[in-house]
Design brief:
The longest helix is centred in the N-terminal third of the chain and has 17 residues, at 39-55. This protein is an alpha/beta fold and 331 residues long. Strands 1, 2, 3, 4, 5, 6, 7, 8, 9 and 10 form a 10-stranded mixed sheet that branches. It has 15 helices and 10 strands. It starts with a helix and ends in a 5-residue tail after the last helix. It comes from Devosia salina.
Length: 331
């Protein structure tokens, strides 16, 4: 028998008798677009890496330092990272094509909501509040108070939302300037010092209740937190796709009343181009090992599957949806 015929016959027999092995999911090797080094998002990156390793020791998630949520939306959309963290408000802006984007980003998909409890906190001194009879952010416009306010730097979503809240309450930047006040942009680490040193009258930022920056102010000054009226909360919640939030009474010294405000959250996103199997494997690992995320920081202790599966400004990835349905978490 010619050699070529023997070879072909052997190959044919091999295909007939060889067992058909089941397909197995490949290990994940993903890059997570986060933010600057340190801080909660870095810890979340470590937690997500622990999550996937718990289900498959060969899987890994590598944290990549970036400019934050807006930058991450572009990175994920363009395939420069597989997954990313983004504030819920930033995700809504990206999906709508608002500034800084020139057009809607249509291929972002939700993997899971990770937290929604970083409230916008407007902090002034009790003496300033009493002098101008200010209890709520709309009181500035009512009395045309010459307030000097500090918000986060341009491009930071907390500064954008703080200014939007004040504008909705009748105190936009131009009006504040006309009343003799000013809006000062500064980094988070600088804002507390500006209020402590008397260079501004009002601190506005989106941080967790009891954040070190506000504790720092509280240790130096008698502070007062200002509430946001219901109509302003409703307007801003719809515009930025964020939730209303109540800062419990006695969260700070001399704060006997609850404060009604709005809160930012963080969402884990991927591109629609991520394979369904990878998104499913990632989401299933997240469901199976949620304690790994809860344990990264005390602020994450309240994360549960109800929040994890909540809808955001963009739809769930098909793979994430399959994992949640399989776990009985959504229909």
């Amino acid at each position: 028998m010619p050699l070529s015929r023997i070879t072909l016959t052997g190959l044919s027999l091999a295909f007939i008798v060889a067992p058909v092995l089941p397909a197995t999911a490949q290990s994940l090797n993903l890059t997570l677009a986060g933010a600057s080094p340190g801080g909660l998002w870095t810890l979340l990156g470590a937690g997500l890496d622990a999550v996937v390793k718990a289900n498959d020791p060969n899987s890994t998630i590598t944290y990549q330092t970036t400019g934050g949520g807006f930058a991450n939306a572009a990175m994920i959309s363009e395939g420069r990272a597989e997954i990313g963290l983004i504030h819920d408000a930033e995700l809504a802006i990206a999906a709508q094509g608002g500034e800084p984007f020139s057009a809607p980003i249509e291929n972002l998909r939700t993997i899971g909501y990770l937290y929604d409890w970083a409230p916008m906190q407007f902090v002034t001194t009790r003496s300033f509040a009493e002098e101008h009879e200010v209890d709520s952010v709309d009181d500035f416009a009512a009395a045309q108070v010459p307030v000097r306010m500090t918000v986060n730097r341009a491009g930071n979503i907390t500064g954008q939302i703080a200014s939007a809240i004040m504008a909705a309450a009748g105190a936009d930047d131009e009006a504040i300037a006309q009343w003799g006040g000013a809006v000062v942009q500064a980094g988070s680490s600088e804002q507390a010092g500006l209020l402590q040193n008397g260079r501004v009258d009002l601190y506005a930022n989106g941080v967790f209740v009891g954040h070190s920056s506000i504790r720092e102010i509280e240790n130096a000054l008698d502070i007062k937190l200002l509430s946001i009226p219901a109509d302003v909360r409703a307007q801003i919640a719809e515009e930025f796709s964020i939730a209303e939030f109540t800062i419990p009474a006695d969260s700070y010294e001399n704060q006997p009343e609850a404060i009604e405000t709005l809160a930012l959250g963080a969402v884990l996103i991927a591109s629609a181009e991520m394979s369904e199997e990878d998104a499913y494997t990632l989401t299933k690992a997240l469901i199976d090992n949620l304690d790994s995320i809860r344990s990264v920081h005390p602020a994450m202790a309240d994360l549960d599957t109800t929040l994890l599966t909540r809808e955001t400004a963009v739809p769930h990835h098909d793979g994430a949806l399959r994992a949640y349905q399989e776990a009985g978490l959504i229909e």
